[in-house]
Specification:
With 1084 residues, this protein is an alpha/beta fold. Helix content is 35%, strand content 22%.
Length: 1084
């Protein structure tokens, strides 16, 4: 910038704001009452203080700095500033000298808090308040607060120096105190800055920053303790800490060797930590720059600081040293391009805006090389600046360092609507470990960096390993036989109107087992079974186990091609079925078929076959979907099955008086415990008829008729069941077990509301382990999340990062499973087994872990929280989102019974589509439903289409069948939808004028067609002046299409009254203009 700053503004002139001021005024308008941009300072004063002289000193400082005599206002939607000749100010005084010590401290804290939380009216100068609190003779506290729009951190020493100089003058002379005048003022700087930008002097710097950032900057999606609100919040606090002296020295030594500043090393460590916390290698960090490169502004108070955006691009194979060198290169380039206002860069960008996040970056980092507190040198008074938590957070996280001869202090400011205090402390601890690694082992690869300390690792290992297991008993079919000998006449099975005793079931299973042995079934022989639910199914499963075989369930409803593949892949040579089912099955050579409904199970030996088995022999093989489209058979062992069922009995204590409903398709591994657990304990097993598991009315009838105490649901079916009118009559229910999908908190709440006598359990487990591996007892205490809990007996649940390191509590990682419950592998697929069942890095005995592909994290209470599938992460506009969060909000809406959200491919990225069904006697309208979602979710998370179905389609396992969901209606060939309502046409006209363009439609996003936050202020102003609507700016930010703004201002049913208001507003505007013209004419 070659042109100097010259005096250009006189008192009373209305001039534009600097770019930084303009953005700050927008934020203040977006969030009225916002105090996050207050700059409080607190000084403890000891000595003979002259309060009157101090007040006159403040007046002198205000007279010297025009920015403190400046008010802010809007002119046709454009923010402006005006310098006044004077600004009223008084030093508020509070005498607490007579209060007892405890009361005095409380009153002082409240006075300081009120000063710091002062809500400024920027329409009146000065944006400065000060409060002097007397504590006793020669003891005071001075609390000063300025709004950021008139000051910044680099203004602090200027203010303190001028105030001290004015105080010295005031002590020596009564009356008005004058300080030397300044050659230019902040308003002159604002005029000069805009002229420099608009004249093209900074075009090269703008090009540099846009090249550096690329076309779109991904949002930094840090894991949070609380759900992010739809609108950005500013509640916050700070955590102070110090670098240990040895670490500070080690960092200095590293910096000397690398020829870089401490700023570079400290920022590099911050980038590495954020990358590990978020799982992202690409994100941006804001870095403040003093913006005081010109000599003319060196003595000015004002908002000169600007923000430079450093884009981090990290990879696991990068070393810490390499990251540091990249930051050094970026920092040098930033110094060469330091004059460009951040707001100019922001206005030039087309990045998607999210009202829930700061644009471009969500995390700040700063270093001040003079760490001493600001000196307030009042004559005759010893002043000491006190640390003060200003209880606000401008960003998700801000890390600042203050480097002085005495040491290095750090301060982590965090948003308390997102993070708990313990998370902030963990961040600091982890940061110090990164910094230690950078200084001591800079060639360490990011993938190998360990961020957990010894105590934390020990805690994680305790949470992860529940090693005692039940491995000393006989296979489950022998336990059932033992139960049959103990209670031979008790009812074991109920199907329809018939019942079998334990003796009948055991004898028939034994007879069939003998036949299977005679046909060549031996231990580990896979035996196919394709049956409809009924007595034959239970007999067939037991008989296969008794013969030593491993049963392979084949759902007759599967497509023929899938059945044929499973028969071939599993290598079965024997298939149990029914005569009416056999005709639907594909023929296969070499497979012998036995039709159980035609077999006489009353003939033959009914004694136990007594086949020799051990725990490693296979019990069953269940096929699960494969990523290549080919299903794969998970082969599970007897020892794994017994351990799982023995744990379940220990945990849930099933008794002979219980009745369990078997309704899960037997191709889903939940059916395994439904079949065998009750028969091991002497309970009754009620088998639902085919298809009953999909019909809530039939389930209600079964539960009531048979007094069912225990049953399982996948969460999507539980949603449908809980919506049925007859649920509350199912008073016999004592245990409801959920698994197979994430259980929404809203469904949990409905269960406790409608079935208060039942316990609800949330279990988790892949088919590659024996049924379930973690458990959680749900709670009716209003918790917002449903965990998947802790490992069951004999199980390991490790949460690991990409480098197979333990992920710290609160951090997402992939769930790896180990222990006795693991499957042997995939049947006949050794290569695939080796890929998914990997060596246990924590074992020295050759144990294995199974990679689940599920993203989880440890909560602070040692419970696991399920976050979703790693390979199903959805990104919308560069932001990772959890579809379950949207589904939970849909389920919380009145009238919604079921909900599922999917991401479908669309031009320019994924498109969210929601599918919902209504509760009985309710009619769902999609437009109001969208509007309610906009109140609780960011706009980008609100589905673009909502499809209302009578009921959601379910697959054979009772889960939502996403492949069967219908495609939503296409939005139409035309990408631009013209306005149809009068209110839409009026808003379009306003947009056209503000944006300087036409040709957009009512569904185009304001920010996608050239709009930005400051132009939105003009839209707000025009809507108010032309249409008569005083709409909050935050609503326009959230509703960023013409259609949604029109809906917000004027719902369809109130079009006429709304437009009458619009016409009245236009009429008033014309009348006002006419009055102004007449008044102007009368003055000549």
């Amino acid at each position: 910038m070659s042109i100097g700053i010259v005096p250009a503004v006189r008192d009373g002139d209305a001039v534009a704001l600097s770019y930084a001021q303009e953005q700050l005024c927008f934020l203040q308008k977006l969030e009225p009452g916002l105090t996050a941009y207050n700059l409080p300072r607190v000084f403890r004063l000891e000595g003979a203080l002259d309060a009157d002289a101090l007040e006159r000193a403040f007046h002198a400082v205000i007279a010297r700095h025009a920015i403190l005599r400046t008010s802010f206002f809007e002119q046709d939607g454009v923010p402006m500033q005006r310098v006044h000749a004077q600004a009223p100010f008084s030093l508020e005084r509070l005498d607490l000298g007579t209060l007892p010590a405890d009361e005095q401290q409380q009153a002082l804290a409240e006075a300081v808090r009120r000063t710091a939380a002062h809500v400024f009216d920027l329409g009146s100068a000065p944006a400065l308040v000060a409060r002097l609190v007397r504590l006793g003779e020669d003891r005071h506290v001075l609390a000063v607060c300025l709004h950021h729009v008139v000051s910044d951190a680099w203004s602090n020493p200027i203010l303190a120096g001028d105030l001290a100089q004015a105080y010295r003058l005031a002590l020596r002379a009564g009356g008005v105190v004058e300080l030397p005048s300044l050659p230019v003022q902040y308003a002159d700087y604002a005029v000069w800055q805009r002229a420099s930008v608009q004249g093209g002097a900074l075009a090269g710097q703008l090009d540099h920053w846009n090249r550096h950032l690329g076309p779109e900057v991904p949002a930094l999606d840090l894991p949070t303790d609380r759900t992010r609100a739809a609108q950005k919040t500013f509640a916050g606090t700070a955590l102070g800490f110090e670098l240990p002296p040895a670490l500070a020295l080690a960092v200095q030594k590293f910096c000397r060797a690398e020829k870089c500043t401490p700023f570079v090393a400290l920022l590099a460590a911050w980038q590495v930590l954020l990358s590990r916390q978020s799982g992202q290698g690409d994100f941006a960090i804001g870095v403040p720059n003093a913006g005081r490169h010109r000599e003319e502004v060196s003595e000015l108070l004002g908002f000169f600081v600007t923000t430079q955006v450093f884009r981090a691009r990290l990879s696991p194979r990068q070393s810490l040293r390499a990251v540091c060198r990249q930051v050094r290169s970026d920092a040098l380039a930033a110094l060469d391009n330091a004059d460009l206002p951040f707001e100019v860069l922001l206005a030039s960008r087309k990045d998607r805006r999210d009202p829930a996040r700061s644009p471009l970056f969500q995390v700040m980092f700063g270093v001040q090389m003079s760490g001493e507190a600001v000196a307030l040198d009042l004559e005759g008074v010893r002043a000491e600046m006190e640390e003060f938590d200003d209880a606000g957070a401008k960003f998700d996280l801000s890390l600042d360092f203050y480097i002085a001869a005495q040491g290095v202090r750090g301060r982590l400011e965090y948003n308390t609507d997102l993070f708990e205090a313990r998370t902030a402390q963990r961040l600091v601890d982890s940061y110090l470990r990164v910094l230690q690694a950078l200084a001591s082992d800079p060639d360490c690869l990011l993938a190998n960096l360990v961020l957990t300390g010894g105590d934390e690792r020990a805690q994680l290992m305790r949470w992860s390993e529940n090693l005692p297991h039940r491995d000393d008993a006989e296979p489950v079919h022998r336990l059932i036989a033992r139960q049959a000998r103990r209670t031979p006449d008790a009812v074991a099975l109920v199907f329809g109107d018939s019942a079998w005793s334990y003796a009948q079931l055991d004898a028939r299973a034994n007879r069939l087992a003998h036949r299977l042995i005679g046909l060549g079934v031996r231990p580990d022989t896979p035996v196919g079974i394709a049956l409809e639910r009924g007595f034959e199914m239970v007999v067939g499963l037991l008989a296969i186990l008794k013969a030593g075989g491993a049963y392979v369930p084949i759902d007759p409803e599967y497509p023929k091609d899938r059945i044929a593949y499973m028969l071939e892949d599993s290598g079965v040579v024997l298939l149990l079925t029914q005569s009416h089912v056999r005709a639907t099955l594909p023929a296969r050579e070499g497979v012998r078929t036995i039709e159980l409904d035609l077999l006489d199970l009353e003939a033959g030996p009914g004694t136990e076959p007594g086949v020799e088995l051990h725990g490693e022999h296979l019990a069953y093989v269940i096929y699960t979907s494969g990523s290549t489209g080919r299903p794969k058979g998970a082969a599970n062992r007897h020892r794994s099955l017994y351990n799982r069922l023995a744990w379940m009995q220990d945990a849930y204590a099933l008794g002979e008086a219980d009745t369990v409903l078997q309704k899960t398709p037997f191709s889903f591994d939940v059916s395994v415990w439904e079949f065998f657990w009750p028969l091991m304990q002497g309970a009754r097993l009620v088998v639902a008829r085919p298809g009953d598991h999909r019909e809530p009315a039939r389930l209600v009838d079964l539960i009531r008729r048979h007094g069912v105490t225990t049953l399982h649901f996948v969460p999507s079916m539980l949603q449908a069941f809980m919506a049925h009118d007859g649920v509350q009559a199912c008073g016999s229910l004592r245990r409801i077990v959920c698994s197979g999908e994430a259980l929404p908190a809203e469904v949990q709440a409905r269960v406790f509301e409608r079935l208060p006598g039942a316990d609800l359990y949330n279990l988790y487990g892949p088919t590659e382990a024996a049924i379930d591996v973690t458990h959680w007892r749900c709670r009716a205490d209003g918790r917002n999340h449903v965990a998947i809990g802790r490992p069951i007996a004999g199980t390991k649940t490790y949460v690991l990062d990409d480098g197979l390191n333990l992920a710290a509590a609160g951090l997402p990682g992939e769930l790896y499973l180990g222990g006795i419950g693991l499957a042997r592998g995939y049947l006949g697929r050794s290569a695939l087994s080796s890929e998914r069942f990997v060596a246990d890095p924590f074992s020295d005995t050759g144990e294995r872990l199974y990679r689940t592909g599920d993203l989880v994290r440890w909560r602070d209470d040692g419970e696991l929280e399920y976050l979703g599938r790693i390979d199903h992460q959805v990104k919308i506009r560069g932001l990772r989102i959890e579809l379950g969060e949207i589904e939970a909000q849909l389920l919380a809406q009145p009238g919604v019974r079921e909900a599922v959200v999917v991401a479908q491919p669309a031009t320019g990225g994924a498109r969210l589509v929601a599918y919902v069904s209504a509760t009985p006697l309710q009619v769902l309208e999609t437009a109001p439903l969208k509007q309610r979602l906009l109140q609780v979710l960011p706009e980008y998370m609100v589905p673009g289409a909502i499809v209302v179905l009578e009921t959601l389609p379910l697959n054979a396992n009772g889960k939502v069948d996403r492949k069967a969901l219908p495609l939503p209606e296409a939005p139409g060939a035309a990408t631009r939808v013209a306005p149809a309502r009068e209110i839409e046409r009026a808003i379009c006209a306003i947009w056209s004028e503000v944006l300087g363009q036409d040709g957009f439609g009512i569904h185009d996003n304001f920010f996608d067609i050239g709009g930005h936050s400051l132009l939105l202020v003009q839209v707000q102003s025009q809507i108010q002046s032309r249409l008569g609507f005083a709409v909050p700016l935050v609503d326009l930010f959230r509703h960023s299409t013409v259609a949604s703004q029109a809906q917000r201002l004027s719902p369809a049913h109130s079009e006429e009254p709304a437009m009458q208001l619009a016409r009245d507003g236009a009429r008033r505007q014309r009348e006002a203009m006419l009055r102004r013209k007449r008044a102007a004419g009368g003055m000549h």
